[in-house]
């Protein structure tokens, strides 16, 4: 590697989430503030909502059923 062209690496970067969770990672920044982490993101917490807008799946199935006939 060339000298003096790479940013300084911080092995103990403190990350703070808006939900209050904090953890340590390695980064070129000394600290970070984020909006979503694995403790509050719906995908990881199991609170993910699956929406079927106006019965789109049913409309698709009806079209496919008509096509088969």
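^ structure tokens above, recovered residues below v
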């Amino acid at each position: 590697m060339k000298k003096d062209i790479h940013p300084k690496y911080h092995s103990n970067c403190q990350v703070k989430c808006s939900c209050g969770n904090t953890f340590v990672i390695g980064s070129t920044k000394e600290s970070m503030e984020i909006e979503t982490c694995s403790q509050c993101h719906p995908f990881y917490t199991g609170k993910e909502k699956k929406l079927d807008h106006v019965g789109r799946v049913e409309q698709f199935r009806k079209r496919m059923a008509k096509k088969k006939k």
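The CA atoms of residues 16 and 22 lie 5 Å apart.
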